[in-house]
Amino acid sequence: MAVNWSKLKNCYGNNSVNIPIQICNLSHQEHTIREEALKYLYNFLCHQGSTSEASVYAIPFLLDLTSSSNTPDRDRIVFFLVDLALRFRRDYVPNGIDITAFRSKASDIEISCYNALQVGVPELIQLLQEDDKALTSSVIYALAWFPENAKQSLPILKRLLTKTSSPDEISNLIFTIGILDPWSWKELNSFLLHDSPSFRASSAISLAKNFLSPNIIEILGDTVLYLEDRITLDHEWEWHYCNSIEDYVDLIFARIGICKRQEIVSLLSEELEFYRSYDYKLSDVATFVKKQIYENVRQFHNPAQLSFNFEQKNL
User: Fold this and answer.
1) Which of 73, 88, 89, 60 minimizes the C-alpha distance to 1?
2) Mean pLDDT over residues 43-64, rounded?
């Protein structure tokens, strides 16, 4: 595909003649050159979440790089591709992307970027066969955002879940399957009882969009309540979809937790009390707890009905 990069505008409104050079540099054998190239491409093709016409044309070339086993750091290119295709993914957690709403609200450039990567979804699915754990994890993550391709991706993802022994892959598979398949609770429910805190957390987050049962609320609370488990979670699972485990619980409680507000507020208050013995964490956790409560108040149709005394809780 011949592209006249000098005619394409990047995120700064300038021509894009340097874009193909930097794309080629992503396959360079020197790490520092690859790092500089990725930094350059993020800056000019995905600046602060904004994309441009050059971003659309860059995606097929980036996909070609991921298909070559000679390309180093292919997982990072996959993450970059998803950043180009879909801005602000945390807006779609935990329910997944409503593709009809997305296509009706997104700009022409955003839709074109999404479509350009969607064309390459079959290629991404093929990458799951490669013996590269970092690449596999990034592809599992990427497939979560393409529900229109779920008929092709879900059977392979579910089969991989029964075969892999990697904790990172299992946790990400649980989450991606949960996003793509509203009936996944039949297969993922058993992970709520697993010994691994990472598996319990990912299954609770994945299943929360269907129903906030008492055991799911308890597991979500435990993931931020117990310091030892939280360190294990952060170590085992790179939280690609959000920045941290707190982000997930934050989004779930604030967006779909209204019907269980009393249980959630009590649980978060308990968390704050627990962390009083960890002074270095107290400020962050207190802010987190307050945010949860205020989010629930804001979203509830009649905030006065939320019977919670902030002064009594010393917040």
Assistant:
1) 60
2) 94
Q: Give the integer Cα–Cα distance in Å for 132 and 166.
A: 11
DSSP state at residue 102: H
Of the pLDDT bands very low, low, confident and very high (cuts 50, 70, 90), residue 289 is: low
CA distance 285 to 282: 5
pLDDT at 24: 97
Amino acid at 151: K
Amino acid at 53: E
Neighbours of 220 (CB within 10 A): 24
Length reported for the chain:
315
Residues 81, 66 contacting (CB under 8 angstroms):
yes
Find the distance separating the first CA and the last CA of the chain, reported in whole Å.
Answer: 59
| Model pLDDT, residue 282 | 44
- Distance of alpha carbon 224 from alpha carbon 221, whole angstroms: 6
Q: What is the pTM of this model?
A: 0.80
Q: How far apart are CA 38 and CA 25, in angstroms?
A: 8
